[in-house]
Amino acid sequence: MARKEAKQPEIDVVEWLRGLPKAELHLHLEGTIKPETLVELSQRHDAEPLTLEAAKKLYTYEDFVGFLMSFKAVTERLRGPDDYELITYNMIRELASQGVVHAEVYISFGIIYYWKKAEVEPYVEAIERGRVRGEKDFGTTVLWIIDAVRHFGVEEGARVFRKAAELRATYPSIVGIGIGGDEARGPADQFRELYAEAKAAGLRLTAHAGESVGPKSVWSAINIGAERIGHALTAQNDSELIDVLAAKQIPLELNVTSNLKTGCCLGLDEHPVKLYFESGLMVTINSDDPPMFGSDLLGEYVLVQDRFEFSLEQMRELAANSVEASFLEPARKLELLKAVERYGY
């Protein structure tokens, strides 16, 4: 009598994706505040603290301007260094729960310099306390990328980047710099000399580009030396640019839900994530400002796998890309790449 083969159990795709070792490369610290944490901050600072229901309402908006207003309403409750320690620790706990083994997180010195009129050192010390505790408790490692608001101008960008270089001597976890903000009012080519200076100081280079303006912004980011590009949504409109991105294997930090929620991409079917992947580009999946967009990195992996019909092997490739594109030291990078490779079905 022929022996029946044991039936293989069906894979729970969400749980498989949760367990897949992966890195998050495009995440803003100030954009990781969940409503529950906002309530805790409100209890610290507001005469009449927010209820959870009221806090959740602050995360609703209808367009990009509304998003900016929501972001400000949430982040204005970051008053002192201890608040930054809290959100850093909570961020790492959340990342670990999604199977994120490493994250490279943007910190906006602009919020501290311009909104709080304060020096950054006490805030960086607090953020580092949160990072050290979080890494110890949850195992997810974190490096920092210091972000300048490009439309504040070159002079302000210089202040941010030079402070990042200065603090790197004390905090090796500060690994790179980038420019966010309004691409139209702060073209990347204005920062060419500052990027060269930052590179000479040992900082790695990123840039937001092609999120809300055309492919020219991505070209400019490449031309000033950006090693990774955030969003790159409009690169799809320039076939020559696609060829260059594929040939140079410049990692792209894609943020699908973010692009939809801000209106930069009009529909999921129009998002180029699968086009870029099939064109041989170095695609990574990221979450940007998770609670503001009602998603997180695990949610992005689930969305991409389901809606764009990526195979699990292709999802493993995306996870490997995220590690390969990181600014980790080679030994740690190799360790994580091996973990991705060993991860089974």
From TrEMBL:
Q: What keyword terms does UniProt attach to this protein?
A: Hydrolase, Metal-binding, Zinc
Q: What molecular function does GO assign, one term?
A: deaminase activity
Family of the protein in this entry: Belongs to the metallo-dependent hydrolases superfamily. Adenosine and AMP deaminases family.
Per its UniProt record, the required cofactor names are: Zn(2+)
Task: Tell me the NCBIfam families matching this sequence.
Answer: aden_deam (TIGR01430)
- Where does the Adenosine deaminase domain start and stop, copy by copy? 21-341
Q: What is this protein called?
A: Adenosine deaminase
The record's annotation in Pfam families points to: A_deaminase
Matching entries from InterPro entries are given as: A_deaminase_dom, Ado/ade_deaminase, Metal_Hydrolase
